[in-house]
Specification:
CATH topology: Rossmann fold
InterPro entries: HAD-like_sf, HAD-SF_hydro_IIIA, HAD_sf, Heptose_bisP_phosphatase, Histidinol-phos
Mean pLDDT: 94
CATH superfamily: HAD superfamily/HAD-like
Radius of gyration: 15 Å
EC number: 3.1.3.-
Helix content: 25-40%
Strand content: 5-15%
Protein name: D,D-heptose 1,7-bisphosphate phosphatase
Low-confidence stretches: none
Number of strands: 6
Main location: cytoplasm
GO biological process, one term: carbohydrate metabolic process
Number of domains: 1
CATH class: Alpha Beta
Strand order of the largest sheet: 3-2-1-4-5-6
Largest sheet: 6 strands, parallel
Order of helices and strands: EHEHHEHEHEEH
Distance between the termini: 13 Å
Amino acid sequence: MRPCLFIDKDGTLIENVPYNVDPAQLRFMPGAGQALAALSSAGLALVIVTNQSGLARGYFTRAQFAQLQEALLQRLRDEAGVRIDDVLLCPHEPDAQGRPACLCRKPAPGMLITAARRHGLDLTRSWMVGDTLDDVEAGRRAGARGLLFDSGGETVWRRSPLREPEAVFDNWAAVAAHVLDEVATGATPAGRST
C-alpha cells in the first residue's frame, strides 16, 4: 500500500478565489508543482480532496467545476510533469452551525477514506495538507498526519487534539522537505518507525 499526500485545493494548492470555476483565474501557490513532482518521484500518491459547497449553493455547476478541474490537472502535467492520482470533492454545504452535514465534508474524513480504499493507500503513512484546521482534523480522523499550510485560510483557530497540526508551513518547498524526510526515516503518526 502506498503512502499519499492528500492536498486541499483552495488556499493550499492554488490561490483562494472564492467559488472560482474560471480557469483563467487559476494560480498555483509558488513552488507547488515542483514540490508535488518531488513527492511523486518518491513514490507518494497525490490526491486532491476539496470541499465545494458552491455546488449545493448553486454558485456553479458540476460541468463548470469539471472544466476547472481539467485545466488544473492539465497545467500540473504540462508545467511540472505531475499526475494527480485522483480528485475527490464534497458538494455539500455545512449545517447551520458550520459543521459537516455529511460524511465527506472536511473535517470529516470521508474523502480520504474513499480514496484510500479506491487506490490502496496506507493512511498511517500519509499526510493531509491544507490551509485550515478542518483539513488537519480530516487527516487526523482518517489516521494520517495533518499539516497546516498557513496561507491565511484559517481564521477561527478552534483548537482540539485532532486539530493540532504535526507541523505548520508557509511554503511548498518546506512541505516537500518535511514529508520526504519522514518518508526516508519511516516515521509514523505516533513517531514510531515502520
